[in-house]
Write a structure and sequence with these properties.
Length: 104
């Protein structure tokens, strides 16, 4: 992990070892949960949202209780269109296969 990076140890733990009640969606710019993490605490479904900080995410940890969809964005626009992948609750994806720009 890069200097200044932040991650809860339980973010990379198996789902059964993650604390109950802490609902977060964590985003990492490169694959394999490297780099500086950004997160969204207690996410709720709504409109298409940008990755926190306006960056991108190549790996994601879903500590929430619902499925979230990561989008590559169509031609770099801030939309929930184009290639996408679902990240079910209590799971993670070490390499989405694209740089996600948006989620919902």
């Amino acid at each position: 992990m890069a200097p200044g990076s932040f991650a809860f140890l339980e973010d990379t733990a198996p789902p059964e070892n993650r604390p109950a009640g802490r609902l977060t969606l964590s985003f990492y710019p490169p694959a394999n949960f490297q780099g500086e993490m950004t997160s969204h605490y207690k996410p709720w479904w709504g409109n298409c949202g940008r990755i926190p900080g306006g960056g991108t995410a190549r790996s994601v940890v879903n500590n929430d209780d619902q499925t979230w969809i990561m989008y590559a964005g169509l031609y770099g626009r801030a939309t929930c269109e184009g290639p996408d992948i679902e990240v079910p609750p209590g799971t993670s994806n070490a390499d989405l296969g694209f740089d996600a720009t948006n989620w919902n």
